[in-house]
Amino acid sequence: MTLPETPSFRLDGLRAFVPGGSRGIGLGCAAALAQAGAHVVIAARGQAGVDQTVAAFRDAGLSADGVTLDVANLAAVDAVLAEHGPFDILCNAAGIARHAPAASTTPEDFDAVMGINLRGAYFLAQKVAAGMARGGSIIQISSQMGHVGGIDRAVYCATKHGVEGMTKAMAIEWGPRNIRVNTVCPTFVRTPLTQATFDNPERRAWIEEKIKLPRIAEVEDIMGAVLFLAGRASAMVTGTSLLVDGGWTAD
Ligand SMILES: NC(=O)c1ccc[n+]([C@@H]2O[C@H](COP(=O)([O-])OP(=O)(O)OC[C@H]3O[C@@H](n4cnc5c(N)ncnc54)[C@H](OP(=O)(O)O)[C@@H]3O)[C@@H](O)[C@H]2O)c1
């Protein structure tokens, strides 16, 4: 009797594009993919962050290149893909937040967050998928806020609910080309983006009350989910969302 074999989690020979990979969750995603054998191209707006990250990857013996990019600039996305593409994996972690009550949201903040978190994510997926001639895996780092609401987070929630919706529609459209499209939805993770939230005692109490597991999430908690969705172990998984929320949305 031949036993079924667990599909490998290795990504050797594959090329991965990680916008937002210079720090925080994206850095963890890029490290997970590179440690599994992929060549990663890390993109972010800040040159210094990209350079430091790529140097750390290379020092660790990992295969990485870096490029400065604002994902809201679609012509710049085209130029990066022309130079560094095509890719087998897109893991998009580029994102921002400008939290405020819905009653006082400005059009400027609305457009800035939408432009990166939703419009940027949409066209990154469209443009990277265009080059995925042998199939591929698109992973959007969405959020638990793509499934629920949160205090002062109307715009942020709008972008992440949008990412959830477009992911399902793209999965339907590109499934026949063997391009899988999924999201990873973290709870609050300690990163530069969430420093102000964790520094606010009221918000910190809200987070600790809502997360069912007895601790705050770290970047490492997201890495396994990304690795799973990138490779063969998830070959029949598309159009869905992997919540890494410590049980936040369970009630
Ligand atoms: N931390 C959390 O608790 C949490 C929870 C759920 C979901 N998320 C999501 O996870 C993603 C990453 O969050 P994070 O906490 O890791 O944030 P972070 O620490 O602020 O890192 C954000 C990364 O995205 C890059 N970036 C931002 N705007 C960009 C743009 N326009 N073009 C290209 N790169 C850009 C940043 O580099 P530059 O500033 O140099 O461009 C950086 O590399 C976001 O989509 C966020 O919404 C975070």
Ligands bound here?
Answer: NADP nicotinamide-adenine-dinucleotide phosphate
Number of helices: 8
Assigned CATH class: Alpha Beta
Question: In the CATH hierarchy, what is the architecture at level 2?
Answer: 3-Layer(aba) Sandwich
Order of helices and strands: EHEHEHEHEHEHHHE
The CATH topology name reads Rossmann fold
Enumerate the strands of the largest sheet in spatial order, edge to edge or round the barrel: 3-2-1-4-5-6-7
Structure description:
The protein has 251 residues and is of the alpha/beta class. It has a single domain (15-246), classed as Rossmann fold (3-Layer(aba) Sandwich). 43% of the residues lie in helices and 15% in strands. It contains eight helices and seven strands. The chain has helices at residues 24-35, 47-59, 74-84, 107-130, 154-174, 195-199, 201-210, 220-230, and strands spanning 15-19, 39-44, 64-68, 89-92, 136-141, 179-186, 241-244. It has a seven-stranded parallel sheet, with helices on both faces. Helix 1 (24-35) packs across helix 8 (220-230), helix 3 packs parallel to helix 4 (107-130) and helix 4 packs parallel to helix 5 (154-174). The mean pLDDT is 98. The protein binds NADP nicotinamide-adenine-dinucleotide phosphate. The site of NADP nicotinamide-adenine-dinucleotide phosphate has 30 residues, from helix 1 and strand 2. NADP nicotinamide-adenine-dinucleotide phosphate (NAP) is lined by residues 19-20, 22-26, 43-46, 49, 69-72, 93-96, 116, 141, 143, 186, 188-189, 191-194.
